[in-house]
Design goal:
alpha+beta; Tetrahydropterin Synthase, Chain A; 10 helices; elongated; disordered C terminus
Length: 380
Amino acid sequence: MPWKNQGGGPWGSGPKGPWGSGPQPVGPRPPDLEDLLRRGQDRLQQIMPGGYFSGIGITLIILLIIVFWLLSGFFRVQSEERGVVLRFGKHVRTVDPGLNYHLPYPIETVLLPKALRVNTTSIGMTLIDDPARRGRSIRDVPEESLMLTGDENIVDVDFTVLWRIKPDAGGVGAFLFNIQNPEGTVKAVSESAMREVIGRSQIQPILTGARNTIEQGVQELIQRTLDSYGAGILITQVQMQKVDPPAQVIDAFRDVQAARANLEQLQNEAQTYANQVVPQARGRAAKIQQDAEGYKEQAVAEAKGQSARFLNVYEEYKKAPDVTRERIYLETMERVLGGAEKLVYDGGSGGQGVVPYLPLPELSPRRQPTPGPQSSGGSR
């Protein structure tokens, strides 16, 4: 017997499966779309008694279309964006982040560039996906990184440029309408600026301590070039990632760098020793000169004093020669005989009372010699 004649297949009548009952509805049934449309039409007919194509209905439809058209002019600008409003394709204003409004399409349209986002452009290297490491790896691009220096050497330079759109109204408009490929423009201008700065520099400062100067010079040159293009781009920073000689000669360059480092170390040590010895020698020479100047001043002062004393004595001598001569004689004898032992003997006329030998020095008490300027003398 065919199963279709049983009104439900070989397992009985009705929508049943092989195990008895059929599928049971679970949860609330979804609303019927036709029922919803029918109810909406009924309500619309109640609002417009004359029908859709009556005067009131057409007016209401037109008003609803105008309202929806006017409401379509509202737009939101995110925090890192700037809104550029175009009226029939012409830039009329730039709006800040937040909720804004423009005349609906096709009168005005809006563009939302990422004006505050910092973009990164790499020159001399590129990032590629590495499935083995489950990440991204850096691959060198020699046609971009190999550059000729001012002293005709080749250097391998990898660097990145950080840039963003100028946030003012003129900068955002210039970025949108003056250049077609901003990323490619920045990359080409950056590579050209780096080659120009490297071409004016020597290889030794490039490899050692002139990175900051080169980065600053490249940034200024890129900014001037982009401003001349009217690109509306602001260069925030230039970072040199790698500065090395070419791979074929890098070992020889490292040997040269090591030799120069040793030379600088020896020069610094010699300069340190010179800075220590030279001041000491200068100090000793200055001391000797000061001692000589002191002795000179002392000798000259003593000579002047003695000559002045002699002249004073001579002036007094001319006034009274006898008195002055006697005074000089007495002063001289006093100075000569002042420290000597003296015995005065008055023998009288008969010479009585004196033995033939009398140890006079032993009879007189010994005196300690008096120190003085004159140590010569005699005894009488």
